[in-house]
Amino acid sequence: MPQPALMNLKVLLPFQIFAEKAGVSRIVAETREGSFGLLPHRLDCVAALAPGILTYQNEGEGEVYVAVDEGVLVKTGLDVLVSVRNAIGGTDLGQLQEAVKREFLNLNEREQSVRSVMARMKRAISSAAWRSSIMSEEPKTESAKDQDPFSREIGAKVSRKLRARRNRTQGVWFGLGMMGLIGWSVAIPTLLGAALGIWLDKHHAGRHSWTLALLVGGLAIGCLNAWHWVNQQDKAMREDQEDKDE
User: Fold this and answer.
1) At the N or C end, where does the chain have fewer CB atoms within 10 A?
2) Cα angle, residue 71 at apex, residues 65 and 72 outer, rounded to 5°
3) For the whole model, what pTM was predicted?
4) Per the domain annotation, does 100 fall within a domain?
5) 75 belongs to a structural domain
6) pLDDT tens across 108-148, in order?
7) Packing angle, helices 93-125 and 128-135, rounded to 10
């Protein structure tokens, strides 16, 4: 029986070949419109890549993640060419996130060093009249908001994927537990209201039934409590679905 055809992946940087892999069975890339997958039998295509996670899978390495900057992807037959400004690879999402942080921390430090040298050169060639004002200038340290957008986007996407992977383990028992939690959140306030109403009717009887009034009040509080839990869980499920879609 003939073996199925597999893809050849090549990732190019401006001055070097980052990776060249054969026997790739699946590729997932990200564009500004969202994620899309490539299989060997897919028609030829071209896509503009956004900063994000490029995922490929082969028999030798399994599933591999590559953090890529903006670039372009071209599929021609079984050959897939990815050309990007920068790339960092890894098989573990957590390690990849740390590698991205270290890489761009080093870039920021190098940029600050260059700025410091340029500031000293300006002070050396400036006239005496402007020397004092130039000497007072200090190279500015970039804050977290000024970091490279590639680093910020990769960190956010890796965090979402890790959270989605952890939530994948929640199955039938988690659903049953949530059902029980919602049921008790309704039952407990109702029973407490009924018990308090019976005690009030016994010791402070009046024209109206305390039991009925507090039973309805406890039920209303329980329903509000249950609605709060359902609403929170619905938000979490929507976030997980968005992570899976990405």
Assistant:
1) N
2) 95
3) 0.49
4) yes
5) yes
6) 565 655 555 556 555 555 555 555 555 555 554 445 455 56
7) 160
In 39-169 the beta strands, taken as DSSP E runs, fall at 45-49, 52-58, 62-68, 71-76, 79-84, 87-90
Residues 199 and 239 in one domain: yes
Q: What are the backbone angles phi and psi of residue 8, rounded to the nearest 5°?
A: -115, 120
pLDDT in tens, 59-107: 888 888 888 888 999 999 999 999 998 888 876 777 777 777 676 666 6
Helix (H, G, I), strand (E, B) or coil at 5: coil
Spatial separation of the C-alpha atoms in residues 29 and 52, rounded to whole Å: 8
Residue 84 in domain: yes
User: In this structure, what DSSP letter does residue 146 have?
Assistant: G
Q: Side chain identity at 218, as an amino acid letter?
A: G
- Domain limits at 197? 172-245
Burial 109-137 (b: 16+ CB within 10 A, else e): eeeeeeeeeeeeeebeeeeeeeeeeeeee
Q: For the segment 184-218, what is each residue's pLDDT rounded down to a tens digit?
A: 777 888 888 888 878 887 877 777 787 778 888 88
Residue 2 lies in a domain: no
Does residue 141 contact residue 112 with C-beta atoms inside 8 Å?
Answer: yes
79-84/7-13 β-pairing:
parallel
Query: Where do we find the tokens 């490279």?
Result: 148
Over the stretch 9-50, which tens digit does the pLDDT of each residue have? 999 999 899 999 999 999 999 998 888 999 999 899 999 998
